[in-house]
Write a structure and sequence with these properties.
Radius of gyration: 21 Å
CATH architecture of the largest domain: Sandwich
CATH class of the largest domain: Mainly Beta
Low-confidence stretches: 98-119
Oligomer: single chain
Number of helices: 3
Shape: globular
Length: 361
């Protein structure tokens, strides 16, 4: 038995079932994975994350507005939490993270699982080979015909990020992949007093050429000595940043990236009273984009070639309000590639709702 403050996990009389009790409320936890021993710390992590989603889904009277379905994904397993509005279903399940275990659970589980929600679990692929100079997680969005992408990023606190911009760099971005072209459009961690923050990151790689974009003169205040705030920059405030990426903005032949969020100053010189000022940053580059394969949302921690990636590196972010061409994204169009990280996501109906990457080596 594992006991934590307010938690107990014990065996039950049913095969492959444990009982998780939290503050005197009990949940059946069914292990459908091939691993006999449950990673109880991960199980509790999944439970806590699901409760966070649940708390955001309560009405004014403290009642659920609908069914909660939440999944924590690690390199080994999926931890699935479900609770219905009326409380008639309140349980957790553990699966192998192989896509086949999701699509045909009866082929892999120790007993058949009759739950339509499992069909909405995102397939996970571990990176096929180790990455020598970093760790990464990528959400693949199979909508190649889309012309633009939007999302909102809940930023981490400084304590959730390790990047010194010398031997390690932290990026959060969207963008697209296609025939001979790759774009990374979003944010790069910057070392700024007092807590650090985010620069506008723009990179398009096409046929051996690199394009770093230029600022639109009307939207260029967040650069040089100015930066976007990260959560915890001012008190305990949480800060979100909006990202928009265009493959061909207004048919001008330009890849375009727009970042909107609270910045430390009103100008690039970093003068005036520091605070939280809502600003827009726009970068673009003239690049002809051919056929696309997919869109993506990524968190990367990397080190330059020839340097050793620091042990203990970490990062975190949460994506929400994810769209392509202003349409929500159906779970059926998604997959995830990951190397040394954890994924947690939730969905509303058939569409993805939130996605959090936690990276650590």
């Amino acid at each position: 038995m594992l006991t934590h403050p307010n938690y107990t996990i014990i065996n039950s009389s049913k095969e492959n079932v444990k009982i998780l009790t939290v503050n005197d409320v009990s949940y059946e936890v069914t292990n459908h994975s091939r691993t006999e021993k449950i990673n109880e710390a991960r199980l509790i992590e999944a439970y806590n994350a699901a409760q966070g989603v649940k708390n955001e889904s309560l009405d004014a009277h403290g009642s659920l507005v609908g069914t909660i379905n939440y999944t924590l994904i690690t390199e080994e397993n999926l931890y699935f939490y479900e609770e219905t509005k009326d409380g008639s279903i309140k349980h957790m399940m553990i699966f192998d993270n192989f896509p086949q275990a999701i699509l045909t659970p009866s082929d892999y589980a120790k007993e058949p699982v009759l739950n339509e929600e499992l069909a909405r679990t995102i397939p996970i692929t571990n990176w096929p080979t180790p990455i020598a100079n970093g760790i990464t997680a990528r959400l693949n969005i199979n909508r190649p015909a889309a012309t633009y992408q939007t999302c909102r990023v809940l930023t981490p606190t400084a304590s959730q990020v390790t990047a010194n911009n010398t031997t390690s760099y932290n990026y959060i971005y969207g963008g697209f992949s296609g025939s001979g072209i790759e774009s990374d459009l979003g944010l790069q961690w910057t070392i700024k007093s007092p807590t650090g923050g985010w620069n506008h990151w723009f990179l398009v790689h096409k046929s051996g050429s690199y394009y770093y974009g230029t600022f639109d003169p009307s939207y260029n205040a967040v650069q040089a000595s100015n930066y976007f705030l990260t959560s915890g920059s001012i008190g305990s405030n949480k800060y979100t940043i909006n990202l928009t990426a265009y493959r061909d903005f207004n048919y001008t032949g330009k890849v375009r990236s727009k970042v909107e969020g609270y910045a430390r100053y009103t100008n690039s010189a970093g003068t005036g009273t520091p605070g939280a000022y809502w600003l827009i940053s726009v970068k673009e580059a003239a690049v002809t984009v051919g056929t696309l394969n997919k869109w993506k949302l990524v968190q990367d921690l990397t080190s330059p070639s020839g340097t050793t990636f620091p042990s203990g590196s970490k990062g975190w972010c949460e994506f929400s309000e994810m769209t392509t061409n202003n349409n929500p994204i159906d779970m059926a169009y998604l997959s995830i590639d990951i190397y040394k990280g954890t994924v947690i996501y939730s969905y509303m109906g058939a569409n993805i709702d939130k996605l959090a990457f936690t990276m650590a080596n």
